[in-house]
Amino acid sequence: MHLLGLALGRGGLPVYAWPADRSLAILESSARGSYPVMLADKYDYYQTEYDPGRIARGDRPREYADFQKLHYADGTFDAVIASDVFEHVRDDAAGYREVRRVLKPGGSFVLTVPYDHACAETVRRVDTSGPDDVLLMEPEYHGGGGHTLTYRNYGRDLGDLLAGSGFAVAHIALDLPGQGITPQSAFLCRKGGFVDVADRRSGRPASSPLGPLAPYRLFLLVKYNLAGFLHYIKEARRG
Fold this sequence. Notes:
Elements: H1 2-7, E1 25-29, H2 35-42, E2 44-48, H3 52-57, E3 77-83, H4 92-102, E4 103-112, E5 123-124, E6 126-127, E7 134-135, E8 141-142, E9 148-149, E10 152-153, H5 157-164, E11 168-176, E12 181-190, H6 214-238
Parallel strand pairs: 1-2, 1-3, 3-4
Antiparallel strand pairs: 4-12, 5-10, 6-7, 8-9, 11-12
């Protein structure tokens, strides 16, 4: 969320303190935790899962989508978020082109994947050149139930792939313990222009001490955590 905050001009504020703006459209795949509830409360937020059957039937298009072939119009979204998703997308190059297509001019793409900056080239775990997947090494699975196949582990050539898809690209090595962010790599991409990461901060906490607003802030935390719990129940029943 730190990079999304930079992309949307929210600086170092915690998500619950971001000002609402229903004119901002955000697309995210496979979101987890309580923050999706906050985003849905503040923005025009599409939270999607991958379910080929539902996608083929056109069920609930705001809730199901294939990033390899998105069913949204060109220039729909101000931001797209994909956290640990694209290692599971069979044709990732097609997915990156689709993300760029559905972004508005100047829109941002926030991406995290398994990434090793010391490795020059992406490790391909599965051969996808034919109609069937062919394992090239011991299969690796992620996801809540550990059932989602990992097609690749990315190296530095990911930046070239993103740039070749038409993005301005910034690779950011995040380490913000004050905001609960452990060391990790992330990519902030932009459709047109350049990527401005000048607001990237050190590990100090994003918010000031609670002070006189403590009761209100505690109310917000309870509200969104409860909403997040109800969201988990909904997802479990839907699955």
